[in-house]
Amino acid sequence: MSTASRVMDLPEERAWKLPSRGRVGMLSLIIGESALFTIFVVAYIFYIGKSLTGPTPAQVLEVPILGTICLLSSSFTIWRSEHAIEHGRMRAFAGWLAATILLGLIFMAGTAIEWHKLIVHDGLTIRTNLFGTTFYSLVGLHATHVVLGLSMLSVVLVLALLDRFPASQSERFAVIALYWHFVDVVWVVVFTVVYVIGR
Amino acid sequence: MSNLQSDLPMPIQGTLESEKARRSRSTALLEWLQGWLVTVDHKRLGILYILYSIFFLLVAGAEAIFIRIQLAIPNNHFLTAEVYNRFFTMHGTTMVFLVGMPILFGFANYVVPLQIGARDMAFPRLNALSFWLTAFGGMLLYFSFLGGGLYGAGNAPDVGWFAYAPLTARTFSPGNATDYWALALIVSGFGTLGTAVNIIATIFSMRCRGMTLMRMPLFTWLYLVVSGLTLVTITPLTAAQFMLLIDRYLGGHFFDTQAGGSALVWVHFFWIFGHPEVYVLVLPAFAIANEIIPVFSRKAIFGYPAMVAASVGIMFVSLGVWAHHMFTVGMTSVTNAFFVLSTMLVGIPTGIKIFNWIATIWGGRVRFQTPMLFCLGFLYQFLIAGLTGIMLSVAPMDWQLHNSYFVIAHFHYVLVGAIVFCIFAGLYYWYPKATGRMMSERLGKWHFWLFVIGFHITFDTMHFLGILGMPRSIYTYQPDRGWNTLNLIVSVGGFIQGIAVLIFAYNFIVSYFKGDVAGDDPWDAWTLEWTTSSPPPVYNFAEEPEVRSRRPLWDLKHPYDTDWEYEG
Amino acid sequence: MSKNEGGTSVGWGLSQVRQVGSSVNRSAIRAWMAMGALSILPGVAVAESAGSIPNMMRPEATPAHQILSLTFFVLLITGSIFVVVAGLLTVAIVRFRSRNAGTVVEPPQIYGSTQVELAWTVVPVLIVAVLFLTTARIIFAIQDAPKPKDALDVTVVGHQFWWEFRYPALGIVTANELHVPVSPVDHPQPTFLKLLSADVIHSFWVPRLAGKTDLIPNHENTMWIDPHKPGLYLGQCAQFCGAQHAMMLLRVYVDTPTEYAAWVRNQQKPAVQDPAVAAGRRVFETEACMNCHRIAGTAATGVFGPDLTHLMSRSTIASGATTNTPEHLREWIKDPAHYKDGALMPAMQLSDVQLDQVTAYLATLK
User: Fold this and answer.
1) Residues B319, B183 within the same domain
2) Do C112 and B344 touch (CB under 8 A)?
3) ipTM, 2 decimals?
4) Is residue A23 part of a domain?
């Protein structure tokens, strides 16, 4: 041991490479956000079937298949977009990015239509019963994150179209993409809990 | 823009005579003020955090004094029930969220970049944002005394710092006091989250050449652990606060027992936050002790890898013990037994730490300067706090002692006896680095001895009040219960602590102007922050340091007996 | 200073052993004073007012007894740990203090020792194992104790800020003062409490009988007591429940079989109907009192406040805030905030004549 550290120029010391702060920061944020979502998910699961009045999930919820497919495929498009900017193919980057935003918008539109139906047609609001409270809170929390992600992506897209987002910024974009992947993964959990287990 | 500002030299009053002559006094003052308000320098933000916390320490301390005047004699009418309930709620909330967390993150802000040889935090602007969010949260909370809302002014939160549902429901807490409480904690919670992210990124990505993870000073290691724990601790509270506000504003039913909601869900969520929170506060205290005990014992820390492992171990175990705050809510016997076991397990890594500190002192040459005195007080008191903690982890004993003054005594042993003692130790230790001047040793010793005496008069006595059946959170008590004399003693101790803190505050201010000049390395210490000037320049280090061991300054001072030959 | 702490905790416990079952006397206090500075404190407390102290170290029922014996065991272990560790620490500080301030010679640097560190990891593991097993045994013994067939059932409902006691099998409803039969060791007659809450979380705690258990809305809890000696046992709400949490006091009367039977007989009667106080009854029935209070055998059937059918059989009012005398009763009705600011009972703005009348009426409800 001690003889090893006597050697002045260890390889690890010559090449002093540390992880990028953006990635570390985003991963930390994601860990924190996961804990936030965990609490809402636990509350949702705990209150399944505990509402004193209707409507119940089985009566009113429809599985949002289109929205789910769109959101999940947006993980693929953003990955292509990351790949493109790393290799300096800026047009492909903007194209895949636009596709990602479009898919996200379709998902949000799906949510809007679903909520409109639930509120106007089924009379389910956040104050109706425990299902309403937990449903709108959990799905709404996720939707808020989608909106946040879409805003960041849109800013990047606008900058990219104005040629103000050079390929040298690929690391920053990778950090945003990380967030978008996280939002997708959370949807898998929310979808499972709300539309599979909870229905 | 703000970056530019922080690059200007510090225009502290009295240091720039020639410039002052050219400009009017008020312009200079405004510039000085602006320099602090828009700063993104980690050292200035660290100082802002610490000053902010000391201010609230005095505020919440004053609340404690009022509480103790009220309880000094039975059937007292010094405070009404409502005012008392506000004061104990605000005392607890303030001490945890506006004193404990900000001051500890203040230390991190100031010291961590210096210790790892970095020029700033990973995200300086996020750092400023985090501080101002925290500061705004505190101001929002205290604005409730003035703002109040529907039910008139002066309607501060009065539901306890734990704010158990359904007492926080609109039905039982009308007005806006509870909303101030929830909103203020959400806002400062975002600040805390930002700081935690920042510290983690700084430690992972900003270390100077040669500082591998296992060569980081233990102080930095513990802040890495604390920040990781904060990420998964503060967010559950934020989630629960969101739910509370959804209930109160949007008519939700998360904690609405009339609509099938469960009060226990809040209690669980609160303690999923609340228990690890104790470790979020105590691990930085350990961090400070890990710096000071070796330096003032003149020996390297004993068992560095075990200390790291124990800290990480405490972090993980602490996430699985929350329900020991809930032994009386009627969980099954098996659940109770599980949480007894998980709680007792915390004692093992904690024991390792205490033994390693003793072993560090063993064979050393202990110097009894003020920082070390506070650390030694910490060691005894933390030992006792741990042992009363074991008593409370024994569920049947907890059925008796829960929510009694024994619990109050226990957690003040942790929060004051351990954490506040370490905070004082840390303030005395790094004050010369931050200001270039020493705090007075003579006043420091007065502060220490008065504080330690007052502390024991107050909190040792409280254990007995708990055993004699006195519950917490009561604004007064009957004269026939046998609590009169003991309560008077507790109150007297409280005043002695108050005087000690005032001596500290005096010392803190006066030493800034009149203290002895410190020099770069007044304690003959070993970590990187002592290599640069006191106070350090904005860029911290003229050239980026490179380290080969955990104690780079030791290596420098003892070129024929360097650490890196021995560290495994 | 801190060094004495653990030693005295043990000492305090041991001196309590001597106390159990015997009344406080001078020699006991003198013995306490001999235990050292800190252990005088409980002595002071006991000297202040013997008998009514809710002292968990003087148990009179099985759960409290079992907890106390476990407490002694835990105190023994933690006390020993304290003596060893604080002793080591003190030796280290004294022995290795810097004797010569000017010296620049550093002591030998020691970085760690695997064997030593392993030892002080294994020993705590063993201690935890022993503590856990002992604790688990008592948890199961108290919490999962079988309920005998002839156990008395009482439902306790917590309200802001008073206690409601229902005896379903006996048809009795009363408030704030719980009467249970004594449960001698050779002929147990335990009482099982079903704990509910009408509003927020409360906690039932009478230290000399048992540990506390919370009363939670929408969540039923149970606990049991078997007081071995007749007498009055004090307690109070132990979970912060709002403005007057401090005045949510609790009295448990443990009656001899004869006393208990007499109490039950009286409680089961409808309220006294005395024509001399008819005016007061009219006030009670017309001035909204009856919206919240019940008096059996009259039109008053309210459920939000305490049942007043046998109000005068209780020794306190306002959940123990003051003693139950006609003067206090009158003041309480006139201005509840006088005794209990924040209590949910409103001041009804009665005239002095009405106050006299309604107090006279209530004073007949024996």
Assistant:
1) yes
2) no
3) 0.92
4) no
